[in-house]
Specification:
Layout (H helix, E strand, L loop, with lengths): L24 H4 L13 H11 L6 H10 L4 H12 L8 H15 L10 H4 L3 H14 L5 H9 L6 E2 L5 H8 L5 H13 L23 E2 L3 H14 L3 H22 L3
Antiparallel strand pairs: 1-2
């Protein structure tokens, strides 16, 4: 597509708008104007819920739930559809928000029996990100999924790239991991919008680099859902926790050694 010899051609009349998970400039070429779609602010996100379930509570309660969902349109749609269902257990914004604290894996993180169907996978919160991970794996970037799962085990805060090492990924995956493969995994996750950069919102550049201070962030709901997915698909979760704890201990020791005496 970047050569503009196919169905996308920038020259001529009209304006072509394409929505895609792929935010790479290399994919779309130099003539494309990339406009990253960020999560909705709280007020319009609350209105989305009110439009979907108008009798589920007040505007303030809708905004509270929207904030809990991080303004992600897919999650807002899923919650609104659930609340509007006549047989749903939770019928109010407040009840649904409270239930998320204990039942997130059932309300938003449940596996769908028809998830192999692309249209279903794109409409289910747990599986929508798996579509991107499957595509990355199909491109030879099999490390992207375990890397995202590993990042989901950390608290909600910017993660230094220096914290995540090839050795750490080798332990949890059971396979040899190179620095090149790890960097490609970071870049792939950022390309598909699964990782963000804390100091340059909306940036479409690569997520990794040589700077020791480079960091990445996860959207809170992406982090929660991937933690749920890891628990469901991994029997040896203790291995992941132990490897991460040992790496954090080493990182603290390295940081202390770098401090001026």
């Amino acid at each position: 597509m970047a050569d503009y010899r196919g169905w996308i051609r920038p020259h001529g009349r009209g304006l072509l708008v394409v929505t895609s998970r792929d935010g790479s400039e290399q994919t779309w070429g130099p003539c494309a104007q990339l406009l990253p779609l960020e999560p909705l602010p709280v007020r319009p996100a609350g209105q989305v819920l009110l439009d979907a379930a108008p009798v589920a509570g007040t505007a303030e309660q809708a905004r509270d739930l929207a904030a809990r969902l991080g303004g992600l349109p897919l999650a807002l749609h899923a919650a609104g559809t659930y609340l509007a269902g006549p047989t749903s257990r939770y019928r109010t914004f407040a009840a649904y928000r409270q239930a998320l604290e204990q039942e997130l894996r059932f309300l938003l993180g449940a596996a769908h029996p028809n998830a192999s169907h692309p249209q279903v996978a794109r409409a289910v919160v747990r599986h929508t990100w798996e579509v991107s991970l499957d595509q990355l794996a199909g491109e030879g970037n099999a490390l992207a999924r375990p890397l995202l799962r590993l990042l989901a085990l950390l608290a909600q805060a910017p993660v230094p790239l220096s914290l995540i090492t090839p050795d750490l990924l080798s332990v949890v995956t059971g396979h040899d991991v190179t620095a090149v493969a790890l960097e490609a995994a970071f870049a792939g996750l950022h390309r598909y919008g699964l990782l963000g950069l804390p100091h340059s919102p909306g940036s479409t550049g690569p997520a990794s680099g040589s700077s020791e201070g480079a960091q990445v962030v996860l959207h809170p709901l992406i982090r929660e859902i991937n933690a749920v997915a890891l628990t469901a698909e991994t029997s040896g979760l203790a291995v992941w926790h132990r490897a991460l704890a040992e790496r954090l201990t080493t990182a603290v020791h390295e940081a202390n050694l770098s401090l001026p005496s």
